[in-house]
Amino acid sequence: MIVSKKDIPNLLDKMIAEYDVLAPVKKDNFTVFKPIASGADAVLGEGNTKLPAKELFFPQSEKLFSYSVTEEGAKLDAPMDDKKKVLFGVRPCDARSLKLLDNVFDNDKFQDPYYLTRRANTVMVGIGCNMPSSTCFCTSVNSGPFDTSGLDILLVDTGDAYVVELVTDKGKALADQAGLAAASDADKTAAAAAKEAAVVTCQVNTDGLKAKLDVNFYDPIWEKIHEKCLGCGACTYLCPTCHCFDIVDDAVDCAGCRVRNWDSCAFPLFTLHGSGHNPRTSNKERYRNRIMHKFKYFVDNFNEIGCVGCGRCIKNCPVNMDIRVVLENIRGSEARLDS
Ligand code: SF4
Ligand code: SF4
Fold first, then answer.
1. What is the rounded distance in angstroms from the CA atom of residue 338 to the CA atom of residue 40?
2. Per-residue pLDDT for 180 more than 90?
């Protein structure tokens, strides 16, 4: 199948009639995912969004339920967001990040109905990355610029059009509804050429990294690696795979609500116990946890690296901490503690 770029606004308008459609839109000098009211609002050619797609499934702040107790009895209200949605224009790394988060929110011990309801009701339409950014390293963490692993449909940019690859039955159903034209052999050849030409220039060698992290918890290298980090938490909020949260109850008399908020292992309060004890008192311990969580604990728990190589933490750190350099140093490559 194929869709011409000039027909994308119409295609999105058709989808808007049936679904809530979320697509990248312009905000200041970057793009973010927002619900769109018109297909013309979508901005698809500007690389990855500033904020990852995770907040569409796991919002930064979410009321889980509210309750009240009166003379008539107790009432509990736990609204579930079960609207049918299309996430249009998501990049393969962000789509894959949701596959990784599925391990956290849907496993043998825990199933999170809020996250899972949104996941089940959303069709993921991705756009491959013809021009990966200099900070992308997706191919070093088991992914790539045309990875379909978290997608229902992949669009491959061939210049004036997108060649449509159907990945799942959910994607096929959406494409059938949209009534797209068939791709010619020439279109398919153009898509293959676009894939061939897309080069991820940055490689991070992760060979042996997990084995190193298994034994280097007390290594002096952690004293140096964290030094520049301010503990601001920007990298964790912008990371598509970071998922720590805190739950608070807000109650007055016999009525209240329970709210889930993102949290960050970069913050000193994150591990502060009610007793006053804090097992991670220093920035060294907090930064070490961030690296350990992604490249050791996530692998131990789910057999996957908890990073998709999107590069957001590199682009947005106020003191230029570069996770690629950090990983190289941990592996024991040439010392490059100059990031
Ligand atoms: S964005 Fe940079 S300074 Fe802020 S917590 Fe992350 S690594 Fe540290
Ligand atoms: S750790 Fe950095 S590069 Fe990896 S997924 Fe998170 S923001 Fe992207």
1. 44
2. no
pLDDT (tens digit per residue) in 254-293: 999 999 999 999 999 999 999 999 999 999 999 999 999 9
pLDDT at 152 > cutoff 90: yes
List the chain domain ranges: 2-197, 209-331
- The Å distance, Cα 266 to ligand 1 centre, comes to 8
Helix-helix angle 283-292:323-331, to 10 degrees: 90
**Between the CA of residue 168 and those of 16, 20, 106, what are the distances in Å?**
21, 20, 20
128 C-beta closer than 6 A to ligand 2? no
pLDDT for 338 = 46
Q: Tell how far CA 46 is from the center of its chain.
A: 17
Residue 66: enclosing H or E segment and its boundaries? strand 61-70
119 Cβ inside 6 Å of ligand 2: no
Residues 198, 132 contacting (CB under 8 angstroms) = yes
